[in-house]
Design goal:
This protein has about 220 residues and is mostly helical. The protein has one domain. Helix content is about 80%, strand content about 0%. It has ten helices and no strands.
Length: about 220
């Protein structure tokens, strides 16, 4: 496994850090703006890019690029929803997403307001649909950004930190332990398991707001 990981990490590090960072940021823009996240999860893109990080400058650069990419993508999603929301919802893509998911996102936003925007970043499907849904609602762009910014920051730091920590630990141990590759995989598996558990807890805590009646929140 060490040989495979060495080759993989060397391949990623062979890409110019600036180009690698820009690609990751642009990938996040696509993931959060035009529903690409329903097909290619952004967390996968970020973890892969983060494994090539070397030093604090690259760490900060990648984290900032991911945050800006996510904010830009969600802003595009917001304005697409505001301008073409009905058409997108009635399109073939909108039907593929499913009326159930659109209605669920609307109910969640109506009942939780800004909190729904914040928490949707950590919930599957909703994190791709909410920006468009917010655009079709009465919530202002300023309020939308105020809620999604801290969520994007937390999400980005967590994923870049996990990917870079796993790779750094592997590099430090690969010359000493033949099992270093398993430690690398183990760190990522533990992180993914923790994220899955947190998402389940958030989903369970928000279930009544997603599926049951509640008092609508102010937009």
């Amino acid at each position: 496994m060490n040989d495979f990981l060495n080759g993989f990490l060397d391949l990623l590090q062979g890409v110019d850090p600036v180009l690698r960072t820009l690609i990751a940021g642009f990938g996040m823009l696509l993931e959060t703006s035009i529903l690409v996240g329903l097909i290619v999860p952004g967390d996968t893109m970020v973890i892969v890019a983060a494994t090539a990080v070397q030093g604090p400058v690259e760490f900060i650069g990648l984290t900032v690029a991911i945050i800006l990419g996510a904010l830009a993508g969600e802003s595009i999603g917001f304005y697409l929803g505001r301008t073409f929301g009905g058409r997108i919802r009635d399109s073939r893509l909108g039907r593929w997403i499913g009326e159930k998911n659109w209605s669920r996102a609307e109910r969640y936003l109506d009942r939780r307001g800004g909190i729904a925007v914040f928490l949707s970043r950590f919930l599957p499907v909703l994190h791709s649909v909410i920006p468009l849904t917010v655009g079709m609602s009465t919530m202002t762009y300023r309020r939308f950004i105020a809620w999604t910014l801290p969520a994007c920051l937390i999400w980005s730091v967590a994923y870049v930190g996990a990917g870079s920590a796993a790779a750094k630990t592997y590099r430090e141990l690969s010359g000493q332990l033949h099992s270093a590759g398993y430690i690398f995989v183990g760190i990522l598996v533990l992180f993914i398991a923790a994220v899955f558990l947190i998402k389940k807890l958030i989903h369970r805590g928000e279930a009544q707001h997603l599926d049951d009646g509640d008092t609508p929140a102010a937009p």
